[in-house]
Amino acid sequence: MDLGNITEFKSSPAMREQLAAYGTAKHFKQDDIILNESSHIKAIPIVVKGSLRVMRTEEDGREILLYYIKAGESCIMSFLGGIHHETSKVKAVAEEDVEVLFLPVDKVTVLLKEFPEWLDYIFKLYHKRFEELLEVVNAVAFKKIDERLLDFLHKKAEVTNSKTLSITHEQLANELGTARVVVSRLLKQLEINGTLKLGRNKIIIL
Questions:
Q1: Among the three residues 107, 141, 175, which one is the final residue of a domain in this structure?
Q2: pLDDT by residue (tens digit) across 155-185?
């Protein structure tokens, strides 16, 4: 696998070469589950192409989106869980067709000894995810659901690099942690306002 094609992944050629040697590349289709909650973490996923969404499921079955993982990024929760031999606290799902490099957990510490930049990469990921989780907490606590919905749609469009989003009202409700009827009502109002256009299982941001 040529990690040099990931422009977002700032690392030396030597480290990229070692990652490719240690890791195993796999391809997933949209909505495939890459990592499930409560599963043992044996390898750390690094996204090579495409993107993942990371979800948290509540006891009543409702889900909420925590953050996206884009090309060149990994899941910091997988790092921490894998190093401490814990089970996953989140679920990672393919947002679109995605290529992922799985780095065995035991190689994480090996790279730390060989490449100081690997530690820098982990710290930067941690900082970014912490800020994104703060945004989620802030949105849930202080923003109205219509603001959260519009922010979510724009974020999804940015991640997929497309203003046409293939998603159902049910999926939107799940990712926002609210009821489908609420999402449907708000989407209809946004369509009336000229913000977006609704289609069959898709939303076009205008």
A1: 141
A2: 888 888 889 988 889 888 888 878 889 999 9
70: CATH: 2.60.120.10
Q: 203 has which bridge partners?
A: 165, 198
Q: Which helix (H) or strand (E) element contains residue 126?
A: helix 116-142
Angle at 176 between CA 48 and CA 98, to 5 degrees: 15
The answer to whether 203 and 196 are in contact (CB under 8 A) is yes
Range of the domain at 33: 3-141
DSSP 6: -
Nearest residue to 92 (alpha-carbon basis) of 56, 121, 128: 56
43, 58, 108, 143 from 89: Cα distances, Å: 15, 11, 19, 25
d(CA 80, CA 125): 12
> Tens of pLDDT along 83-115?
888 888 889 999 999 999 999 999 988 898 888
In angstroms, the CA 172 to CA 185 distance is: 12
> Of the residues 89, 107, 141, which one is the last residue of a structural domain?
141
Is residue 22 within a helix (H) or strand (E), and if so which, with residue range? Answer: helix 13-22
